[in-house]
Amino acid sequence: MKNKYNRPYDYNAELAKKGSINHQLLTALKNHYFFKLDFPKTTGPEVFNMKFVEETIVLCGLSNTSDQDIMATLNYLSAVTITDAIRTVIANQYFHIYMSGGGAHNPLLVKTMQELLPDCTFDLSDKLGIMGDAKEAVLFAVLANETIAGNPIDFGVRQGVPGVCMGKISLPQ
Fold first, then answer.
1. Is 92 left (phi over 0), alpha (psi -120 to 50) or beta?
2. Is 110 exposed, middle or buried, given 0-12, 13-18 or 19+ CB atoms closer than 10 A?
3. Is residue 123 located within the same domain as residue 155?
4. 85, 54 Cβ separation under 8 angstroms
5. At what angle do helices 67-90 and 23-30 cross, to 10 degrees?
6. Nearest partner of 99 among 63, 73, 131, 71, judged by Cα
7. Is residue 142 part of a domain?
8. Beta carbons of 163 and 154 less than 8 angstroms apart
């Protein structure tokens, strides 16, 4: 993704920390249907991407919003939707939350999540011996092992999908 800062992400939330949350933009972004779906759910850059953000900004008539305010709003959107999802599952109980991935390294995101869930404790999954920055590599290794072993992954009857091997082994000729 190209931007005028020539960075693929907001390193240490440097831009977001300089901005203010735009509540009109936040509300519009939060109105996306994905946030209303029941669990389990998953998504990625095919839905939440620059096009989505730019279209929402234009739809709200906020084209003059500063990059810092946009990043502050997006950072808060991430924190509040993550903590809303956690709250849905834990129902006001104390939990020790272990984080991994890029967001775990975003100091503003983590600080905001801690503020929104003050009764929970946050740590990196590394403390459990699960290197958070390597979790996808580990997952793909597990899936490859299960495919080689012929062990299908069961998605459960509620999904209506039979067990399948998650991948294809292609050996050199």
1. left
2. middle
3. no
4. no
5. 50
6. 131
7. yes
8. yes
* C-alpha closest to that of 29 among 45, 49, 10, 11: 49
Beta bridge partners of 124: 99
**Are 86 and 137 in the same domain?**
no
Cis peptide leading into residue 118 (ω within 30°): no
For residue 167, the Cα-to-chain-centroid distance in whole angstroms is 24
Predicted TM-score (pTM) of the model is: 0.79
pLDDT in tens, the chain (173 residues): 445 566 778 889 999 999 999 999 999 999 999 999 888 788 888 889 999 999 999 999 999 999 999 999 999 999 999 999 999 888 777 889 999 988 999 999 999 999 999 999 999 999 998 888 888 888 888 888 888 888 777 665 555 556 666 667 777 87
Domain-located, residue 91 = yes
> What is the distance between the alpha carbons of residues 13 and 108, in angstroms, rounded to a whole number?
6
Q: Indicate whether 106 and 137 sit together in one domain.
A: no
What residues make up the domain containing 149?
131-173
166 and 141 together in one domain:
yes
Give the total number of structural domains in the chain: 2
- Shared domain check, 159 and 92: no
